[in-house]
């Protein structure tokens, strides 16, 4: 897949333009988005991502197009899981609903910058050292096992789910902060002294938390494609609609009780795929004498996409069935 510098620059400018459009069209004036507004703009960003995937397929071939769709679906599903943590952070900082859009948009912008750095670093590592696939694969399998043990039943505390907040604690330690919101301002003056507001702190919390998210999402998509342009665009489109998705499915998040287990299967599958690919291109001298392991199969991208979509569908349906059954059982207990 040959992507020119012009295409890279045009794509980057397009992504930045969408962020600025989002800010001036929706976020600049603080308000709590309605359900209709969230639906409309969620459909817009999903449709934009799908159209882009069709363009990739038409220009660079449907092999690349399928890789993009598999990467986009994977990143989008992982971003939904991230919304649980964002919801906890918002609750912990008691962010007024009308200001939450601004927090999320700034968080998305920070996430894009951080993930771009991770993407470029990952591409450089893969280009120079094929054994990196072993590391990526092993890490994803480890993450899958860890994720399978998690739940979204609310038993965990905010600190346990949102991390230790080291970046926020560091800010509070060295910079004066206030516990009260002053509109949507990031800083304020009190008695002539400049203070940071909780708005800035929660933005730092969400932005720094995304570093942890990138540790599994970037290796996951590199397990589906090694083309940096596809990795970047799949991540960008998955993140761009995250603000609208937060308000759209906020109530649904509590019902997706099996989402962690579904994502663990996806990450485990991609981890195994990466290890098999690492064996196929092996150059480590202590494995098969430094020769490629010919018996290691290459899992086709269509199979990866099928596993990803099928797993998400089963996890979603199973979650909704369980929550509905639990609600009926609770209702019958209360009436008996």
Q: What structural category arises from helix and sheet content?
A: mainly alpha
- The radius of gyration computed from the alpha-carbon positions, rounded to a whole number of angstroms, is 21 Å
Individual helix count = 12
Overall form: globular
Number of strands: 2
Order of neighbouring strands in the sheet with most strands: 1-2
> What is the beta-strand fraction?
under 5%
Low-pLDDT windows of residues: 154-164
Biggest sheet character: 2 strands, antiparallel
> Termini separation (Å)?
64 Å
How do the SSEs run, as a string of H and E?
HHHHHHHEEHHHHH
The share of residues in helices is over 70%
Query: What's the mean pLDDT score?
Result: 80
Can you walk through the features of this model?
The protein contains 12 helices and 2 strands. It is an all-alpha fold and 336 residues long. A two-stranded antiparallel ribbon has the order 1-2. A hairpin with a 2-residue loop joins β1 (187-190) and β2. α2 packs antiparallel against α3 (62-92), α3 packs across α9 (228-240) and α3 runs parallel beside α12. The radius of gyration is 21 Å and the shape is globular. The model is unreliable at 154-164 (pLDDT under 50).
List key phrases describing it.
mainly alpha, two-stranded antiparallel sheet, 336 residues
In brief:
The protein has 336 residues and is an all-alpha fold.
Break the fold down into its secondary structure elements and pairings:
Elements: H1 5-27, H2 35-60, H3 62-92, H4 100-128, H5 132-148, H6 158-162, H7 166-174, E1 187-190, E2 193-196, H8 198-222, H9 228-240, H10 242-248, H11 259-280, H12 301-335
Antiparallel strand pairs: 1-2
Helix pairs in contact: 1-4, 1-9, 2-3, 2-9, 2-10, 3-8, 3-9, 3-11, 3-12, 4-8, 4-9, 5-8, 5-11, 8-11, 11-12
